[in-house]
Amino acid sequence: MEEYSYILFIALILLSTKILGLVTKKMKLPQVVGALLAGVILGPAVLNVVKETEFISELSEIGVIVLMFTAGLTTDVKELKKTGKASFIIALLGVIVPLFGGLGLAAAMGVGKGDKLACSPFLQHLFIGVVLTATSVSITVETLKELGKLSTRAGNAILGAAIIDDILGIIALTLITSLADTSVHVATVLIKIVAFFAVAIGCTVVYHVVFTKWRKRDKKDLRRHVIISFVFCLLMAYVAELFGVADITGAFVAGLAISSEKDVKYISNRFETLSYMFLSPVFFASIGLTMNGINMSGKMVLFTVLLLVVAIITKIIGCGLGAKVCKYTNQESLQIAMGMISRGEVALIVAAKGQKLGLMGDEVFAPIIIMVVATTIITPVFLKFVFKDNHEEHVEDELMKSVEGFSQYEQELQELSRKEK
Length: 421
What we know:
By secondary structure, the protein is mainly α. The protein has 16 helices and no strands.
């Protein structure tokens, strides 16, 4: 019966994520926190009743692809164009500061010196900095959608910066792996990244030309439009991986390409339903499943705590400073900084790659997993807090406008009554 165990695992994940999602919602927390906790509880860290099988891992990958595709569909492209330069500056500082922060912490504590790895301790320390540069926008996207802030000025800046952050992170990963492995050429990877975006632009043009002609002949059945859109999303994700770019970047670009279509609302609603009911819970729970019950030395426990602190502070400083340079308000700068804290699946992928290439020992892998899970859990909480103040200010402004409007209306009535007399 083991070959059918994945059915039970999926059922347990969906049930537990929904229950804990409702619990966290009652506690005024985003439901994604409940989904993450469900994964931690079901996984090896607590109950150990659900294992992260290859099927769950692949299903969660589809989940994050759909989530990022939906984010692209619901992104205001005009607003994103306005934040293009700002997003680059935010992402650049959001990579540089964590890179040196992680490098400095690892070097100060001498982490990696005892590992019998082929590469030098400096490269191991530098790689920890590279892991900290990663940003997983998936958690932020889900939280901002719940709060209704995804299309705000800060929300668009976060999305744009996260995509650029992903590219910069890939470049950083490539640079360090090139130092450890002479077979990897930096110039080749840079050419691949540029080539991907060139191909993406070409695919977008072809899609719009073909889709426009097809839509004129088949106006009624919008369900086919959804299927074609999903195929385009998956193909773009696959092409991204072929060029060495993360599949989530390809999915987001595909969503952006379709976001200008007049049927985009219908399409996005269908994908949001699929994501909410099935794929997103599996993806967020799978992050929690990576958490193990780990025995660590006192030194590594201290390193884990400091790594978490550095991971949070460096993103806040880097991204917050970048936002201020781009003339965002203090409130918006804080919102953007908080939205870039989560490392999620991006850091896990980078860490696994480094472990495989001998850039990181097993003793360092455990603290990184804990840091990733912790930042993923606390990011929605931070976002809820910083956007709550903004929401209250917005409500106050609307109330003031209503009061002012009512006062003006009352004055006009009084003036009209005087004229009639």
